[in-house]
Design a protein that fits this description.
The structure holds 2 protein chains of 2 kinds. By secondary structure, chain A is mostly beta strands. Chain A has no helices and 11 strands. The mean pLDDT of chain A is 95. By secondary structure, chain B is mostly beta strands. Classes of the chains: A mainly beta, B mainly beta. Chain A binds chain B through residues 4, 6, 32, 34, 36, 41-46, 49, 51, 89, 91, 93, 95, 97-107, and chain B through 4, 33, 35, 40-45, 48, 55-56, 58, 90, 92, 97-99, 101-107.
């Protein structure tokens, strides 16, 4: 049972453009939504995260938009750079003790071309 | 500042064998979680250890077991290996809840032949 659906599977964006990755979740008990960035041969690294009481969170060039009623959230990368080329995973988790485990999407391979 | 350290980095095992993977958490972290990442997929939660006890478990068979030591390091054991167990096994450590952020290691690439 895939509880977090992610799209697109792959994405090619020109340098300086905006990269947009979308995720949808099913479990309304989720209340923590992070995005992870993974480079080849490395483990995922936390990029940015949001709680459902906020509709948008921005950190530098990275922004999460959250739509609680639609059960969807997205990652926007502004002014995309070649160094942003990586695989991005959305995830979701509950935050009550004993139930905290990340449920990941299937990933988006992002390629930034010059 | 050393992050999460996993060993070995690569491993080749024969079907039916047993394997032990090791994880040293980031300094100061007390909770260790293990994930399995198949090629081209997102990580799947195996189990989590806190205070040397398994706190929660994902949908993995009993062939997968683990342990946490008093120094917070952890082991993942897999018995009776199947070809489908071939994957990248990731260890993540944290202090406090998930909202404080998980730090992942670079993983152990297990190939079962």
């Amino acid at each position: 049972q895939q509880q977090v659906k992610q799209s697109p599977q792959s994405l090619i964006v020109q340098k300086g453009g905006i990269s947009i990755i979308n995720c949808a979740y099913e479990n309304t008990a989720f209340d923590y939504f992070p995005w992870y960035q993974q480079f080849p041969g490395k483990g995922p690294a936390l990029l940015i995260a949001i709680r459902p009481d906020v509709s948008e969170k921005k950190e530098g060039r990275f922004t999460i938009s959250f739509n609680k009623s639609a059960k969807q959230f997205s990652l926007h990368i502004m002014d995309s750079q070649p160094g942003d080329s990586a695989t991005y995973f959305c995830a979701a988790s509950r935050t009550n003790f004993g139930n905290e485990k990340l449920t990941f999407g299937t990933g988006t391979r992002l390629t930034i071309i010059p | 500042d050393a992050g999460v350290t996993q060993s070995p980095t690569h491993l080749i095992k024969t079907r039916g064998q047993q394997v032990t993977l090791r994880c040293s958490p980031k300094s100061g972290h007390d909770t260790v979680s293990w994930y399995q990442q198949a090629l081209g997929q997102g990580p799947q939660f195996i189990f989590q250890y806190y205070e040397e006890e398994e706190r929660q478990r994902g949908n993995f068979p009993d062939r997968f077991s683990g342990h946490q030591f008093p120094n917070y390091s952890s082991e993942l054991n897999v018995n009776a290996l199947l070809l489908g167990d071939s994957a990248l096994y990731l260890c993540a450590s944290s202090l406090g809840g998930v909202t404080y952020g998980y730090t992942f290691g670079s993983g152990t690439r297990l190939t079962v032949v």
